[in-house]
Amino acid sequence: MPFSYVFYDIPDDNLRRKVSEALKDYGLQRLQKSVFCGYLTYNKAHELSLILDDLIGDEEADVRIIFVPNSFVDKVIIVREMYSIDAREVIIV
């Protein structure tokens, strides 16, 4: 199953909260304030994109779901982290 990152820039606080809740509902974990990550199938990512598009409606937002090969997941240089991701806590949906 592909590993994915979801990046977003949403000016409206209420909408940003709704989007982050939807991402959590899909088993993604917060990596940074505007970045979530986790394992998603392409079908689940597409389903999530439709839900997010409905939530966003006509509001201003930039949301991107980016897949990375599983072999790249461990190839990260972390300078400093605020949120610790525990692979045992990642839920596969």
Task: Classify the secondary structure makeup into a structural class.
Answer: alpha+beta
Based on the structure given, which CATH architecture is correct?
Answer: 2-Layer Sandwich
Strand runs, count? 4
Chain oligomer state: single chain
Helix amount:
25-40%
Shape: globular
Please count the helical segments: 2
What spatial order of strands do you see in the largest sheet? 2-3-1-4
What is the top-level CATH class?
Alpha Beta
The residue ranges in which pLDDT falls below 50 over 5 or more consecutive positions are 88-93
> What would you report as the Rg, rounded to the nearest angstrom?
13 Å
Through-space gap between termini: 10 Å
- Whole-number average pLDDT? 88
Domain unit count: 1
Please trace the helix and strand order, writing H or E for each element: EHEEHE
Could you name the CATH topology?
Alpha-Beta Plaits
Quote the beta fraction.
Answer: 15-25%
Biggest β-sheet description: 4 strands, antiparallel
